[in-house]
Amino acid sequence: MYTALPILALSLFDQDVNDRWSFQYPQLYSPGQLNLYFSKKAFVRCMLHSAYSSLILFFIPWAAMHDTVRDDGKDIADYQSFALLAQTSLLVVVNTQLCLDTYYWTAVNQFFVWGSLAAYFAITFTMYSNGMFLIFTSSFPFMGTARNSLNQPNVWLTIFLSTLLCILPVVAIRFILLQIRPTINDKVRHKVRKEALPAPTPHRKPARRISTRKSGYAFSHSEGFGELVTSRRFLLKRPLKSRPVLFATTESPLAQNQPQHYRTITEEQDPSV
Amino acid sequence: MASSYNAKEEDGHVPGSAGHGGAAEAKSKKPDNTAFKQQRLPAWQPILTAGTVLPAFFVIGLIFIPIGIGLFVTSNNIKEFEIDYTGVNSDSPCYSCATNASWNNTTPCLCSLNFTLSQPFESNVYMYYGLSNFYQNHRRYVKSRDDSQLYGDPNALKSPSKECEPYRMSGAQPIAPCGAIANSLFNDTLELYHIEPNGTRNLIPLVKKGIAWWTDKHVKFRNPEGNDNLTVAFQGTTKPVNWRNPVYELDPSDPENNGFINEDFIVWMRTAALPTFRKLYRIIQKKSGPTPTLPSGNYVLNIAYNYPVTSFDGRKRMILSTISWMGGKNPFLGIAYITVGSICFFLGGGFKQAALNIWSVHGILGGVELSD
Q1: How far is B367 from chain A (nearest CA, A)?
Q2: Looking at the predicted structure, is the pLDDT value of residue B80 above 90?
Q3: Distance (Å) from the alpha carbon of B33 to chain A's nearest alpha carbon
Q4: Residue of B125, B80, B127, B81 lying closest to B285 (CA atoms)
Q5: Could you tell me which residues belong to the region Disordered (chain A) (predicted)?
Q6: What mean pLDDT do residues B341-353 have?
Q7: Residue of B nearest to A192 (CA)
Q8: Which residue of A has its CA nearest to B335?
Q9: Which of A86-100, A103-117, A242-256 has the lowest mean pLDDT?
Q10: Which residue among A138, A153, A192 sits closest to B326, beta carbon to beta carbon?
Q11: Could you read off the pLDDT of B224-269 as tens digits, one per residue?
C-alpha cells in the first residue's frame, strides 16, 4: 500500500507539458520513438543507481548503530531497531526520489505521497503496538520497537543523512546534464515557464482524401508500418472520393481544449450510399 | 448519411433515432471532458533551475555542518573506557579461566583485572558487557524463541513452540525458557572496586534495575500466572541445558526481577543486529554532591568467568561509558554530517561557477532552439 500507490499516481498523472504545448512541439514524442527511455543504457544506469542506494541504505545505519546506545543508556543496536531504521530510511528515500521524478504535481499525487508516508507510520505503530502483540503474539514480535527507537534523535539524524546521501547525487547529476545536454523535454519545460500557453490551433477540416501524414503514434518503440502504409504502394487506381470516411472527424482533441464549447459537425451526404 | 455529434450525455447515448449510419457509434467511449480525466488538473510544475538547486545545496551545506560539528563535539565529550577480559594471551589474569571454561562447570572461575581511569566520569555511568564475533543475528538463532511462553501463556509454558528445537524439551519435560537465545544467556558476573590512594577497596554500587526497555519489561515478558511463588508456577518445566540454575532462581532476592521478567534475561533476549555488540549490564548512579561518579584512579574488576567464548574466537569486554542526548560514543554521525555538508557547500559553489561558465558561452539551456 505504501509503496505501490505513489508510483501508480505518478504514472497516471504525470506529464511533461500539457497537451497544447505537446501539439506545438511534436519533437517531444521523438525520445519515445527513438527508444531512449527503455534501452540497455537506461537499464544499466538504473541498476547502478539501485546498487548505490542499497549500499547507502545499509551501511549508513550500520555505521550509525555500531556500538551505539539510547540516550538513556539502554540498547538500540538490536536486530529489530536496525531493521526498522533501514526500512524507514528506505521509505523516505523512495518517496523523496518520487517527488524528484514528478514534474506535474497535482493534488492527487501529493495526497498519495504524503498519504503513503503517513500510512507507513500508522501501520508500523499499529503493528508494533501492545494490542497487536497481545492478540497475535507470535506474529507481531516487534512490539515496542517503533516507540523505543523512533524517539531517539540519533535515529532521525541517520534517516535524514541516508536520504540526503541517496538523493543529492541524483539531483547533482540531473542538474549537470540539464546544463550540458538538455533534452527536448527540458527545453520545452523551460520555455513553458517563460512564455504563455500557445493558442489552440484552429481546427482545419481535413481534405476528403486518405491522409498522407506519417503515422506517428506516441509510444512506438520501433518505426512501425506508417511508412509502408502511406507509401501508396497498395492503393487501387480508383477515384478517391468514392471511399467512405472510416471515422467521423468529430474526435478532435483540440476541440476539447476549449471547455463548454461543443461543436456540431455534420458530414456531407455521401453520394454513393 | 448524416451523423450528428452533440454534447455527450450522461449515459453516453447518442440521441436521435433517424439517420443512424454505420459510422455513428451506439455508445460513445469518449472519456468525460473533466479536468481529472483530461489531465488538466491544477498543478505545480517545478524544474531544476539553477535558482533552486544552487541555493538548496548551499543551504543543506550550511545546515549540515553545524549539526555535524555539534554531533562530533558531543561524541568527543563522552567518556568511554573499554577493557577486554577474554584472557586469550597467557599473561592475562583470566587465561586459566578461559582455557577451563565450559558449560558444565559447577564452580565459577574467578579472575580480576586492574585498570586505571585517567579522567573522572561524571553523571550516570553505564556498565556494558560487549561480545565480538557472536552472531546474534543468525536467522535460525533469532527465530529460536517462543514469545507466547515468555508472555506467560500457560499452554505455551508446557508445550513450547516448534521453533525452539532442539532446545524445546529436555528429556520429557519442556524447557522454560525454550530456544537457543535463552540457552546462551550471558552469565558472567562483574564487580567493580575503586582503590583509594591509601589502599582501601570500595565496592562501587551497581544498580541492576532499569536496564531493559520499559515495553519489554512490562508488556512483552510476563511470568506465568497463578502463583506468586515462582517455583510452583514453573512446575513441570526444566531449566535450559546450559544454565546452572532454573529461571525462577535468576534473582530470588527480588520477586520483581525473577523469572521471565529478570532484566538481564530480557536484555539478552533482545537480539543484537551486528556481530560485535554491547548490552547494558549495570548502571552506576551519580552521587549527590560534587564528587564524580567514578573518580580517576585505580580500579579492580572482579569477574566470575562463566561464559566460554574462545571456542568460536569470540571476545568479551567490559565497557564503562557516560551518555549524552545522542547516545553513546559514536563519532561516525558527526564526521558524516560534516563531510556531506562540506561537499554540498563546495558543490554548490562549484556548480555556480560551472553554470556561469556554461551560460556565458551557450546561453541558458543551450539556447532553447527547438528546431533540431
Answers
A1: 8
A2: yes
A3: 7
A4: B125
A5: 250-273
A6: 84
A7: B45
A8: A64
A9: A242-256
A10: A153
A11: 887 778 888 888 899 999 998 899 998 889 888 999 999 999 999 9
Whose CA is closest to B144, among B126, B123, B166? B166
Q: Which residues of B touch A65 (CB under 8 A)?
A: 273-274
Nearest-Cα distance to chain A for B34, in Å, is 9
Distance of residue B196 Cα from the nearest chain A Cα, in angstroms:
27
Residue A142 pLDDT > 70: yes
- Minimum Cα–Cα distance from A255: chain B residue: B33
Q: What is the distance between the terminal CA atoms of chain B, rounded to a whole angstrom? A: 45
Q: Percent of chain B, pLDDT > 70? A: 84
* CA dihedral sign of residues A154, A156, A162, A168: negative
Angstrom CA distances, B242 to A31, B105, B252, B259, stand at 68, 10, 19, 16
* Distance between first and last Cα of chain A: 56
Chain A CB contacts of B214 under 8 Å are: 148
Over residues A161-188, mean pLDDT:
83
Selecting from A69, A107, A244 the residue whose C-beta is nearest the C-beta of B328 gives A69
Q: Do residue A137 and residue B153 have CB atoms under 8 angstroms apart?
A: yes
pLDDT range class, residue B25, cuts 50, 70, 90:
very low
B18, B8 Cβ separation under 8 angstroms: no
Q: Which of A27, A103, A179 sits opposite B45 (nearest CB)?
A: A103
Mean local confidence (pLDDT), A232-249: 59
Query: In chain B, which ranges are E strands?
Result: 80-84, 109-117, 125-132, 169-170, 173-174, 189-195, 201-203, 277-284, 297-305, 315-321
Q: What is the pTM of this model?
A: 0.76
Handedness of CA A197, A202, A204, A205 (dihedral sign): positive
Place of cell 547494558: B280
Strands B125-132 and B277-284 come out as: antiparallel
CA B273 to chain A, closest CA, distance in angstroms equals 4
Between B213, B219, B277, which is nearest A77 by CB? B277
Q: Which of B33, B153, B267 sits opposite A256 (nearest CB)?
A: B33
How many beta-carbon contacts under 8 Å exist across A and B? 228
Q: Is A264 helix (H, G, I), strand (E, B) or coil?
A: coil
DSSP classification of residue A202 = P
Cβ distance of A83 and B136 shorter than 8 Å? no
pLDDT at position B365 is 53
CA B236 from centroid of its chain's CA atoms: 35
Residue B368: its chain A contacts at CB < 8 A?
187, 190-191
Report pLDDT for A162.
94
Q: Would you tell me how many other CB atoms lie within 10 Å of the CB of residue B204?
A: 15
- Considering only A151-155, B6-10, B101-105, which range has the smallest mean pLDDT? B6-10
